[in-house]
Amino acid sequence: MIGPKEDLKPFSITLFILVTLEIIFVLFICPYLWYEVSYIIPMISLQLFIIAHFLMFLTMITDPGIIPRKEVFQAIGEIPDIFTSEGTDKKKFCKTCQIYRPARSNHCRKCDNCVEVFDHHCPFVNACIGKNNYKYFIGMVISLTLLGGMNIAGVILFIFYDGDTGRSSRSLVKNDTFLMAVAVVLALSITFLTALVFCLCIFHMKISMSGETTKEFRLNIKQNQSVAWFGEKSWFHPRLLIQSL
């Protein structure tokens, strides 16, 4: 289920950034929040961090909807009729897999597989996003957005809320100036990354409600077609259950 080796680098960088920012938040910001503000923010932040990475793991290991190639079908028996002719729905023939792929399926150049309801290939999780793992992907994006918002709120409280004791008294580092510098850099970093993830979250919420995939959305844009928030396509698996209005 894992993508090509060249995507291991962006995936590793993404994982490193997420883990590093959370560790800094927990070590330098959370002690003050826990004792002087509320333990709720550190607890929710940790829970969202775990949920987001669990969904990232599920996105990576779940079969996105890979369609076996012709030789695979032949090895296990016969090729189903749905993959042997274009039929009435004018299915496209994949020269690599040597099959007629179903509607809304596409061949991923990076993974070199045909994927059902292909959305896109995501190098940041090193996996194709398709029929079976889209729900985990969008759940991960939502969780990361909420995590970023929670951590931003925590850092703002750390900077502006004056508790009964100094910030350094609750931290491993006994230097308020250093802690404030860390908080400012952390706030800027998290805000920038959260803004990017938030835009991605809004985009996928939109195409989920309209019943499109990312590939279909891009194709419609290229063809100068207007895209409605609610379309005729809607389904429960793998996207949100939102019926056409």
TrEMBL record:
Q: Is-annotated flag, keyword Cell membrane? A: no
Which UniProt keywords are listed? Answer: Acyltransferase, Lipoprotein, Membrane, Palmitate, Transferase, Transmembrane, Transmembrane helix
Q: How does it sit in the membrane?
A: Multi-pass membrane protein
**Pfam families in the cross-refs:** DHHC (PF01529)
One GO BP on record is: protein targeting to membrane
What residue stretches are annotated with the Palmitoyltransferase DHHC domain? 88-217
What cellular-component terms does GO give this entry? endoplasmic reticulum; Golgi apparatus
UniProt-annotated location(s): Endomembrane system
| Chemical reaction(s) catalysed | L-cysteinyl-[protein] + hexadecanoyl-CoA = S-hexadecanoyl-L-cysteinyl-[protein] + CoA
Concerning PROSITE patterns, the annotation shows: DHHC
The terms under GO molecular function for this entry are:
protein-cysteine S-palmitoyltransferase activity
- Lineage, top-rank taxon, reads Eukaryota
Q: What is its EC number?
A: 2.3.1.225
Predominant location: membrane
Give TM segment ranges: 12-34, 40-61, 136-161, 181-203
Q: Identify its protein family.
A: Belongs to the DHHC palmitoyltransferase family.
| Free-text domain note | The DHHC domain is required for palmitoyltransferase activity.
Listed name of the protein: Palmitoyltransferase
